[in-house]
Specification:
Layout lengths: L23 H15 L8 E3 L9 E4 L8 E12 L1 H4 L8 E6 L2 E9 L3 E7 L5 E7 H14 L4 H7 L5 E4 L2 E4 L3
Antiparallel strand pairs: 1-2, 2-3, 3-6, 4-5, 5-8, 6-7, 8-9
């Protein structure tokens, strides 16, 4: 099992390097990342990027629910973002959900994310895909892509002028910063 690095580790604040070759080392890394993600129970993790295990590589995995299979995304690139206004004719409230991060323990904040994205990426076999994702998967993918660009959800909270909360004894308390 891999160790999850926490802030202020510098690997979390730098853009990653692309993966040139998907070899047995990369496949083993993905397996180890999956084992690490599944073992997270308080809180349960739904995504894990390579920088979170100390590696500056363009790779993340997601597992939105316990029932879902883990999906690996290598060299991902968000090609298009659909805002709520472009999806529906009626104005819709922003897609804002409380986010947390395994690398920023016990901190939570409401982050606005696009409800639908188009992503280009490679799978474990090196096959390229371009695919639309929506809902919770789209939110997780945007969070993990931010990791690959050295951006933490706390930075998004500051940009969006959202409040951050610290979890203490099972309660969320406003974080003063």
């Amino acid at each position: 099992m891999l160790k999850i690095v926490s802030i202020p580790n510098s690997v979390l604040q730098k853009p990653v390097q692309p993966i040139a070759k998907i070899d047995s080392k990369i496949k083993q890394l993905i397996y180890d990342m999956e084992e690490t993600l599944i073992s997270q129970v308080d809180p349960q993790g739904v995504g894990l990027a390579a920088p979170q295990v100390g590696l500056s590589l363009s790779l993340f995995i997601i597992k939105p629910t316990l029932e879902n299979n883990t999906e690996a995304f290598i060299n991902p690139e968000i090609l298009e973002i659909k805002s709520p206004k472009t999806i529906q004719s009626k104005p819709k409230k922003q897609n804002t959900k409380l986010e947390g991060c395994l690398s920023v323990p016990r901190i939570w904040g409401p982050i606005s994310r696009a409800p639908k994205i188009r992503l280009k990426y490679q799978d474990l076999n090196g096959i390229s895909h371009t695919k639309w994702f929506s809902g919770f998967k789209a939110v997780i993918i945007q969070h993990e892509c931010d990791h690959l660009n050295g951006i933490l959800f706390t930075q998004r909270a500051l940009e969006q002028q959202s409040k951050l909360y610290e979890e203490k004894d099972g309660e969320l308390q406003p974080l003063h910063y």
